[in-house]
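Why do we bother with a discrete structure alphabet at all? Because it lets us treat a fold like text: something you can write down, compare, and reason about line by line. To make this less abstract, here is a complete entry for Electron transfer flavoprotein subunit alpha, mitochondrial. Read it the way you would read a sentence in a foreign language you are learning: slowly, and without expecting to understand everything at once.
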Amino acid sequence: MAAMLVGALRRGSGCHGGSRLLAQSLRRFVSTLVVAEHEGGFVKPSSLSALAAAEAIAKENKISVLLGGSGPSLHKAADHAASSHPLVSEVLVADSEALAHPLAEPWADLLRSVQQKGGYSHVIASSTSFGKNLLPRAAALLDVSPVTDVTAVKEPRVFVRPIYAGNALCTVKYTGEDPCMMSIRSTSFSPTTEAMSETKVAPITQWVRLGLLLMQVMFQMTFRLGRQGKLSHRSFIWLLEYPEQYNTWQE
């Protein structure tokens, strides 16, 4: 990808021509992860506005939607997200009691794992209390700086956001490493009203916390071996020294 971008700059006639070709090349490689909120089995309107913001980044954008929580309402919301926007290519579902409440710590860990797996160029969340709490923590884990309260998208990495308590607007350019993490003001992006056909419904992928599954299996084995009198103290040592690297989210 880097070689293609360099080639695009070299083919440009002058600075402005090279900049235009660079912007066009960036649009071709845009992929966005939208962190969505849901309630009552439906994606919240603020998250639908985040999908509209992802579309504004690039028309050829490949959008993935991340949903977390537990229970039947989560999977109903996943079905809604899969048909909520024509550019949605997949819906990632993390079903866990740890995500049932909007706490930033478990969500930031999930978001880091999903980003490391997917390698998205952009991560978008709505500027709700949940998004404002989650985005800085996840950005710190990924060693990037977030762009907050975006009200307009001019280019894939050029945005408009308010300053001075909303009394002025400024244009900012993100120059850091991927992903470009941003929160958007939902009132500035209208959700799409385009009708979706059944053939455009995005696939749904389950994400599980590998460490929790292994712990459950280990506890079951410990219980069964303990009843048979075959349990050694080393099993308890293994549980106490459970390796942290296994306690990660996996697709």
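What the structure line is telling us, in plain words: The first strand starts at residue 31 and ends at 35. Helices lie at 2-11, 14-28, 45-57, 72-82, 104-118, 129-142, 210-227, 233-240.
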